[in-house]
Please model this.
Amino acid sequence: MPFSPRKTDPANAHAHDDHSADGSLPRQTSKQTLPGNLPLSDQIGLDFLPLTDHRTYDQHRDPQWQSSKLLLIPGEEANGSPHAIVLGAIDTIVDGANPPGSPAFRHVQQSIWDTHAQDAAWSTAHPDDGEYTPTTGPTDNASAQGTNTVEVWNIASNPDAQIDYTENRWNNGFRFGAVGASDCHFRELWGTASPGQPTTWVFASQRSVRAILDAIRAGRTSVSATPQGPFVTIEADVDGDGAFEAIGGDEVIIRDRKLPKKARLRVRIRNGAGTRVLIYASPGRSAGPLATFTPDTADQTYLTPFTLDAVHTWYRAEVRAPGALSGRDADPTLPDQLRAATSPIFISLRSRAVQEVLDQARIDQTGKDRQAKYAIRAGVEGTIHQAVAVTGIRHARYRGLKKVHLEHVYSALALNRIRLDAWWNGHPPDRTRTSHLARLELALAT
Model:
């Protein structure tokens, strides 16, 4: 279904306060204390804010961690290498040691799995700081699967090196969105690195913590210098029917390499008069832009035809203009500095063999035998979902295998009593669950 980019939420994806007291004397003597970031973020037009202090959740237990206007997202800057931003978890993410003989990125992979087990989002922070150099490329940690977003614009370092890293990963088949961060540790630097410099825009179905986390996990994001700076979005009409069904962060799977002649990218730039808008396709900046535009009004939209030149490809947009450096370590000789960037739209060609298997499976699903087997599976999955939703069985309340086992036994007994009560009183199990896509469609229609 077409997705409207009007429902956006601006935020800073990575900022700190005095709870990041991890041995840094300047940090401990700074006036960067709660609730300083909160009223500032509200004043400059942000909609939600996580405080991602180093390897702690103490900030969320601070009585000053509250706001009547901002949505507050639980967050943490986890791990040692790479630094990772975890949003929406319920407890700290542990960066464990690698057992002998295991891959070098094992600890990273485990932390990503732990994050996803908590239904949270995992992001690589400032990848140019120890995770990538232009001469050696990415480290082994870049092989970990499941990253939701990567900071393409951390003002504390070099955004162009960060973009090089992300394009390298996208070209190697990884799928994740782009976010920006001030990485603000010191109140004294608010003039150049306050929350919202840069701003991450999240395309969420509604203004809620869960909807925002879902959108971040899907990579539906865009980045601008400030909430009032140039703001760019990208959409794709892959099937050429006039409806733009994908936005940045989405992946579209197609059956035929030959796209319709009316397939189009739609790039909209607001507050961008006098800047340059560049549209890139894989492999990215090394191949030059697919198209370049120079807006002369406050709100302009451009349509660009595109074709599929490889089995996997991606398209993104960025905005550049002369002026202040885009990051502390940005190249001062560049004529244009980064001012905004989108997450890519990924387009992949499904192989003929896979498509034939999929077509046959769809035919088989219409048979009675398949429906009978699926009814059993649906019952099992329904029971698992009920256990998670009613008893919170994914998260143990106690330590020790015996106590956890006892907790599971009591959870099973509780489910049995709930189901027996429903059966005896003629109340069938709830069948009114609405899918994420249906909820999104309903939210956009209102």
User: Anything to note?
Assistant: The first helix runs from residue 25 to 29. The mean pLDDT is 86. The longest strand covers residues 312-321. The CA atoms of residues 382 and 429 lie 9 Å apart.
